[in-house]
């Protein structure tokens, strides 16, 4: 459900969905979106509260490496040669009343 909410949120802000749940051995990308000529790899995280840290803080260095690996496979399989970036969409709160934080260019590897 979090991925659907994130996708709808990003589409309302002008991004287009290219693919959901792109999986390769060792990694997965929740959403692959397009914003103009830029390919956006989106990691979606959800938490009911920030009591033990924010949803965005759960995107560890290890997770970032796995996203990079999956993104490399995606780029090779599609032949995309334009710009790309990694975004995080963090949802916090109860379903139906969650707060959405879109962190553009959240990390670089």
Topology:
Layout: H1 2-12, E1 16-24, E2 27-35, E3 38-47, H2 61-78, E4 84-92, E5 99-103
Parallel strand pairs: 3-4
Antiparallel strand pairs: 1-2, 2-3, 4-5
Provide a descriptive summary of the structure in words:
With 109 residues, this protein is of the alpha+beta class. It contains two helices and five strands. It has helices at residues 2-12, 61-78; strands spanning 16-24, 27-35, 38-47, 84-92, 99-103. The chain has a five-stranded mixed sheet. A hairpin with a 2-residue loop joins strand 2 and strand 3 (38-47). It is globular and about 40 Å long. It starts with a helix and ends in a 6-residue tail after the last strand. The relative contact order is 0.22.
Topology pattern, helix = H, strand = E:
HEEEHEE
Shape: globular
* Strand proportion: 35-45%
* Widest sheet: strand ordering: 1-2-3-4-5
Quote the distance from N terminus to C terminus. Answer: 28 Å
State the share of residues found in helices, binned by percent.
25-40%
Unreliable sequence segments: none
Oligomer: single chain
Task: Kindly report the average pLDDT value.
Answer: 89
The biggest beta sheet is recorded as: 5 strands, mixed
Number of strands: 5
Structural class: alpha+beta
Rounded radius of gyration (Å) = 13 Å
Number of helices: 2
